[in-house]
What does this fold into?
Amino acid sequence: MKTIIADKIASVAQDQGLHRKLQVSDDIPCEEGVLVAAQILNSKSSYNVLELTSGRMAKVRKGDIIVGALGHRKALFGYSGHLPEKLIPGDTVQVLNIGGVLGICDSINANFGQPFDAQILGTVLSFPYLGERIGVPARVGKNKIDVNATIDTIGVPVVVLAGTSMNSGKTAAASAIISRLRHLGHTVDAFKATGVSLRRDILAMEDAGARNTSIFTDFGVVTTTSENGPPVTRMMLNQLAAEKPDVIVFELGDGLLGAYGVEAILRDQGIRDSISCIVLCANDPVAAWGGVRLLREEFDCEPHIITGPATDNLVGKELIVERLGLPAVNAVTHGVELGDVVANVLRLSEAGKN
It folds into this structure.
């Protein structure tokens, strides 16, 4: 066991409440969610920030000692990588995302350049036994996932944001809906169900007026999959419903086709039955058409409204309305209207509870 001083603690470690002075061990369990300390070995001019536990984005420089979590990532528009099978101090891993997920990079994105290389210093230790100096590997999350969790939203209406891909405007749409429903007097709770650990999206939801927020990382999940996606979604729905909001809004990170468990979630009968409104975010009219077809034919889900870049101008909106028979509203330019459409689908009264 040795002492290090961390320069930056990534948001993936938020639930552990770590301080910069840390104890680390040379024994490194190569398991998803184990927190490790590592030193950055190179400099970058793009994709060069780390989301801290405070939510701030901090620029990362060569020589910085960071704390992140071992994990994997399968991103369409970012770095992809796998969990290493074995690590000892001195080994090199890569920073796979700005939330602090560390693994072995398999594929890069040309727009971001090569990822940060980081030299492993050791496993971050926590000391759960009061009065004893017995350290155990620190891990992501404050709650444990229950793979057998059932679902009971006790009648709270649920709005889900699904996208045709990453970067299709899901968080912007969720924020617009939350903001409008709050202005109508309703209490809104929100969460992000799938993706790779990063708190930026739920922070945006909080900024829009969400009372309570959650993310899969809080349940020890670094990266969602078809196995852990459905149970962690059920648990977050139950947790927030127990707080008795007027509405729950949640975002499915990634796209309808992807590796983060969105398909498994939409195939889960209990989750499907809890959904009151589906907002599809699409990058273009063709994506909107394909997304609607996927939802209907593959998942037996009926979308209620289309938003995203496909609705950036009148041409796209007219094509969607004409070909799909669904309302098309842009979240950025017509956020109030988008929220009103959702409120109408949910049959919420304007005089909501505060």
Remarks:
- The radius of gyration is 21 Å.
- The chain has two domains: 2-137, 158-346.
- The first strand starts at residue 2 and ends at 5.
